């Protein structure tokens, strides 16, 4: 087994699921190129030749409309549906073609599931529901209930352990379902339309909590949904299904910006791009950029060549230090100064490369320069001009609007005259009544 194999939590190869008469014959016809709708009456191909790998610790979303085969697929992944053809392995061990006893062991130890309609035991307390997987493993009652209370606190239900499911709201019931799956402590967590029965506000809250829990526990999650925005928000990668087939697998950005076919393009055309695309997806090469050790003459030449009235300043290690303006550089040069550190101002707005675009509108409006984008080490990796931000969200009436400083840039000829004179005391700025004018 290679190092890459160790990074794969679940692998599916050439999966088929056919319901009805003579399923094996239907598989052979599908392999020969017969369309799904031409199969014999009473025969339905729910999943057709599906192959994919799920990486350890990722949220892998399977997305599709009703009838696309996604719910059948997830039931195959924990053995609730036998595969008509193809194989599934979990951590390198086969899940397809094993005995019933082995399948029960895999469900108990390797794969747990959160259902759309909660599937709680109505006559057991919340704590007893959460502790149920541990009861199946023979864990002592006191130990499993203590563990249940710990996990309930993590999902925001501390103190609710002695309640019955009927006393809870829908969102609270789904938290219990997630807590039960976490208590099972399996390698893989399957979630079948887990949030679709919830009100929109509760649904968003649950999505955010799932990401918080994932950051803490680093489970491998396979999440089924028909909601594109939910898929884009949650998924590290997304598999798009249509008519039983997986038609594209990629990151949310891949799916949104490079759809594999017209079906995927139509599917994603109404997605809220501002919640999906990040600064790193749309940033441009930063220019102009000046190294802090450069003098005012270099700064002025750099800004002049870039037709800019200000520039970002970085250290030798590319860490962002701040900004300088052409006016400040001119004043520094007139008084004979040489250290840019005297005139560097704090960068007005700095964003991380993983910040979603919806959080960038106000900073873009307020910023004197295109937004600076930095990595985790504080290095300047790109910039986002306002026009780029607008273009990333689609054309509009302001798509060609330019970002300007509050003051217009110093005319190029003024800078040229000053630089050409080669004298730090050059009278490159005229004065009237003691005030600088350009």
From TrEMBL:
Xref: SMART domains: AAA
GO terms, molecular function: ATP binding; ATP hydrolysis activity
Gene3D superfamilies for this protein: CBS-domain, P-loop containing nucleotide triphosphate hydrolases
GO cellular component terms attached to this protein's record: membrane
Annotated CBS domain residues: 283-340
Top-level taxonomic group: Bacteria
Keyword Lipid biosynthesis among record annotations: no
InterPro entries: AAA+_ATPase (IPR003593), ABC_osmolyte_uptake_ATP-bind (IPR051921), ABC_transporter-like_ATP-bd (IPR003439), ABC_transporter-like_CS (IPR017871), CBS_dom (IPR000644), CBS_dom_sf (IPR046342), Gly-betaine_transp_ATP-bd (IPR005892), P-loop_NTPase (IPR027417)
Domain ABC transporter, chain residue ranges per copy: 10-268
Keywords of the record: Amino-acid transport, ATP-binding, CBS domain, Nucleotide-binding, Transport
GO BP: amino acid transport; glycine betaine transport; response to osmotic stress
Family assignment from sequence similarity: Belongs to the ABC transporter superfamily.
Xref: PANTHER family: GLYCINE BETAINE/PROLINE BETAINE TRANSPORT SYSTEM ATP-BINDING PROTEIN PROV, GLYCINE BETAINE_PROLINE BETAINE TRANSPORT SYSTEM ATP-BINDING PROTEIN PROV
Protein name per Swiss-Prot or TrEMBL: Glycine/betaine ABC transporter ATP-binding protein
Species this chain originates from: Microbacterium album
